Amino acid sequence: MALQLSASEWQCLRWLQQHASHNHEALAVPLPLPQLSTVRRDRLWQQLKAKGLVDFDVVVTRFGLSATGRMLLQLDRSVLPVTPDEKWVLRSCRDRSIHPDQIAYKVPHDQRQALIAGLAEQGLLRITRQQIGKIWLTPAGAAVLRYDCAP
Questions:
Q1: CATH number among 1.10.3810.10, 3.40.50.720, 3.40.50.2000, 1.10.10.10, domain 7-58+132-148
Q2: What is the pLDDT of residue 27?
Q3: Is the pLDDT score of 30 beyond 60?
Q4: pLDDT higher for 4 or 51?
Q5: Is the separation of the CB atoms in 3 and 144 below 8 Å?
Q6: Is pLDDT at 1 greater than 50 in this prediction?
Q7: DSSP letter string, the chain
Q8: Whole-prediction pTM value?
Q9: 21 pLDDT more than 60
């Protein structure tokens, strides 16, 4: 049974094949279909991921302190059940929702997304905005392009 893809999905796959390597080198993916809104484009990528043809990372772009996180910061600071870097993340968003670049400079840039995700899983942060980060073809996606697009 052949895989059913819309014209837009095919166009996204072909664009990705042309612009990205298979080893996670495509950062902040530009629009493959400029006439589409960001929401529609992201929906297309999610549909392709659900079909197993592409994979991508999700990047948190805005987050804030949850009620649980706020209560945790009010506890005795010597007994907080978080690491020093996690504590800096929590303190950074104490007053408002922030972007990861607004976290205290003491927290390494390459660890911020992982710290945010971990604190959100614990219920200490609430993620208010995310976007698709790196995107790449899966082996199945590469196979579909290789066999279904062959002349």
A1: 1.10.10.10
A2: 44
A3: no
A4: 51
A5: yes
A6: no
A7: -PPP--HHHHHHHHHHHHH--SSS---SPPPSSTTS-HHHHHHHHHHHHHTTSEEEEEEEEEEEE-HHHHHHHHS-GGG-SS-HHHHHHHHHTSSS-B-GGGS-TTS-GGGHHHHHHHHHHTTSEEEEEEEEEEEEE-HHHHHHHHHHS--
A8: 0.76
A9: no
In angstroms, the CA 98 to CA 76 distance is 24
Q: What is the pLDDT of residue 37?
A: 83
Distance CA 90, CA 104 (A): 10
Domain boundaries, the chain: 7-58+132-148, 61-131
